[in-house]
Amino acid sequence: MTSMKRRIFLKGSLATGAAGMAISAGLLTPRAVLAAWPKSAFEAKTVDDAVKGLFGGGTLSGSDKIKIKAPDIAENGAVVPVSVTSDIAGAESISLIVEKNTSPLTASFILGAGTEGYVSTRIKMGKTSSVIAVVKAGDKLYSAGKEVKVTIGGCGG
Amino acid sequence: MASIKMRAKASDGVTTIKALISHPMETGARKDKKTGKLIPAHFIQEVVCEHGGKTVMTAEWGAAISKNPYLSFRFKGGNAGDTIKLSWADNTGKSDSGETTIK
Lengths: 157, 103
What we know:
B: Immunoglobulin-like
C-alpha cells in the first residue's frame, strides 16, 4: 500500500515538473513582440520542412530571374557575404536557406510595397553547401541556388 | 541607437539602406573555451525598417546570420531629409532602434 501511494506521488510531481518547464520556456521567448517569427520554420532540420514551416508547403520552381552573389570559396564560414537580386514582379519575400546547416533556414526578408527585390547580408555556414534563395510572388515560390565551398566552418567553435 | 549604424542614400528615386548592428548572434551550439559549457543562444529574430510610417522591410532572422549583422536593401521612393527608422528584437527580449535621415 505504501509503495502504491509513493508511485502516485511520483507521478504527480513529474507531471507538475513538466508543466513548470513549459511555462519557463514560454517566458524565455517573448511571443507578444515577435508574434510573426516563424519558429517551426527556423527550427526545421531539412530544406523541405523549412519551406513547409515558412510558406505552408508548395513546390519550388527554378528561376533564372533570381541571382545570388556569394563567393565560390568562403575562407571563413562565420562570415559569408550573400546578396540576392530578383527581377520577379510582385515579389513578397526573399528567404535564404543554407542546405547543409543544422537549421537550414537562415533568414526571411519580407518586402514592403515599394521595396526592390534585393537584399544583402552576411551569413554563417557550417560546411560546404548550396545557398538557396526562395522568392515568394503571389502563390508561387521561385528558387535559385549557388554552391559555396567553405574551408573553415562557422557554426560552433 | 548605440547598437545600430545606418546609412540611407537616395538616387534616381531609389533609396539604398545599409545597416550594421552590433550583436553577438550566438547560435547556442558554441562552447565557452574556458568552462566547456554551451553559450546560450542569443540572436536577433526580427529587424523592422520604416519610412514615413510604412514598413519597407521586415527581416526574420535565424541564428545563422553572422555576428554583428549587416543588412542592405533598396526601396522606391524616399527623398533626402526623410527619416528612416530601424529597430530589432532578439530572442532574449532585448531590443533597440535607431533613426537616420536620407542623404
